[in-house]
Specification:
rod-shaped; alpha+beta; Regulatory protein RecX; four-stranded antiparallel sheet; about 200 residues; RecX_HTH_2nd; 2 domains; WH-like_DNA-bd_sf; Arc Repressor Mutant, subunit A; RecX_HTH_3rd
Length: about 200
Amino acid sequence: MAGLSPKPPGILTDIKAQARNPQRVNLYLDNQFWLSLDIFQVTQLGLRLGLPIGPELFDKLRQESLFGKAYARALDLLARRPRSEREIIDYAFRKKWPQAITERVVKRLGQKGYLDDRRFAAQWARSRQAGRPRSRRLLAAELRQKGVSADAAAAALDEYDEQAALQKLIRQKSARYSDPRKLAAYLARQGFDWDDIKQALSLS
């Protein structure tokens, strides 16, 4: 019946590149659109016109299609900014990816060097140092929230110049907090050590 999704067994009758994304192709089963795959998947799986698609291959290719879409989405997220492994897993959970697909995506990203929590933690610390300075205590809490391991976080914190961060934050907030005592209270709420704050502000 017209309009129904193709079901096995069938014959792969066409493979067409997508107009909007030439890196993905549409597959047609018995002249009906079936699913899409990345170009590398078509080559990797040895797909060709006229290939018989039985139930086992049918299910496998459906899973490959889901994986290709999920992997492409994960790459898009990483292109916007570095992510921790936990952030990718949490995103997958929100989008209700099957667990097996999530595990494959995370594994592939790690193998390709796109997902590395130690590198992510170091990059996160550098970005905070450059634009939005934090105390080590607050930075450590952020990294924990993103699921970074204690070892990876510790390595990033070892390279973090908290005194420089404190001085930068003072320059950023001094206009807002003209009273040194109020500025000191703000800095304390950000997790900086009180002795460091007093010394930086020349408080008695």
